[in-house]
Specification:
Structural class: alpha+beta
Number of helices: 11
Distance between the termini: 35 Å
Helix content: 25-40%
Order of helices and strands: EEEHHHEEHEHEHEHEHEHEEHH
Radius of gyration: 18 Å
Length: about 280
């Protein structure tokens, strides 16, 4: 029996990781992703390569993150001060913590599950190179690192519940909370809004991983989300792009749908040239 099991989503594939190894990659539902092409040479021309080759490249990307950053292992790096994705969710939340537009972030970390933190470098360390985590096993060594920096972990079994994380953050006195929610995993966004009202707090909801999003889920996103990454969803681009109060430029469009979302991104301006140079060096 495997000691641990983690399921993440990248390039529309589901990747299963156990004991520091990629053990399964499902067939991707897309043939090209501009953000993946921005970072990884092997995925720059993914639309023209054979499906088997594409799965091999996806596996190679995840294996590289395991080797360099301890992704889904006890060696997981959790502290980072550098920008990795020009307009990524962790970058925006770290920016919000620094300028006090939010006072904590509720995010998801492989090896820990739902995590509450008010440290920008931890938000960035967790999310900089991570993909949507759908399931994860609890890794005690990762939890020790996070708690060293004052993080609160929802449960010692890798539980992922962003609504419960928001409620727990409110109990701990936080009033302006940012939370990431995967469009793919189906957690109720309306439920998070209800918790916001019940607790009399302000919650900024950031929706990631919208590739392949269904119409019913897109309706919920449109109604309740503040910031959305369109990923490779044409429906998200067509519908949310018209509603956005601000569109952040980049390889993939990011839509601030509300003034609250606009407030989080206000003043954020990454050095894209510097990011490209750093990636080239690595």
């Amino acid at each position: 029996m495997a000691k641990d099991l983690h399921i993440v989503r990248y390039f529309s594939s589901l990747i299963t990781i156990s004991e520091g190894r990629v053990i399964k990659v499902t067939e991707p539902g897309i043939s090209y992703c501009p953000l993946a092409g921005f970072f990884y040479k092997g995925l720059k021309t993914a639309g023209t390569i054979h499906a088997k080759k594409l799965k091999d490249e996806i596996k190679k990307v995840i294996e590289g993150k395991i080797a360099r950053f301890g992704f889904c292992t006890k060696d997981r790096m959790v502290w980072d001060e550098d920008i990795s994705v020009p307009y990524g969710a962790s970058e925006l939340m770290a920016h919000g913590l620094k300028n006090k537009s939010i006072d904590c972030a509720v995010t998801v970390c492989d090896g820990a599950g739902t995590v509450i933190t008010d440290v920008p470098q931890i938000v960035q360390g967790i999310g900089a190179r991570m993909h949507a985590v759908l399931e994860t096993s609890f890794i005690p060594e990762v939890a020790v690192k996070l708690r060293r920096y004052g993080c609160y972990i929802l449960e010692e079994r890798g539980a992922i519940s962003q609504r419960t994380g928001v409620i727990e953050a409110a109990k701990r006195g936080f009033k302006k909370i940012a939370v990431t929610v995967s469009a793919f995993n189906g957690e109720s966004i309306e439920g998070i809004r209800a918790a916001e009202k019940e607790r009399e707090i302000s919650v900024t909801i950031l929706i990631i991983c919208t590739t392949g999003i269904k119409k019913s889920r897109l309706d919920e996103v449109e109604k309740y989300a503040d910031i959305v990454w369109a990923c490779q969803s044409g429906d998200a681009r067509n519908i949310l792009g018209k509603k956005a109060v601000k569109i952040l430029p980049g390889a993939l469009p990011v839509y601030a749908l509300t003034e609250k979302g606009n407030g989080l991104v206000s003043g954020y301006s990454p050095n894209i040239f510097g990011i490209r140079k750093a990636m080239a060096r690595s």
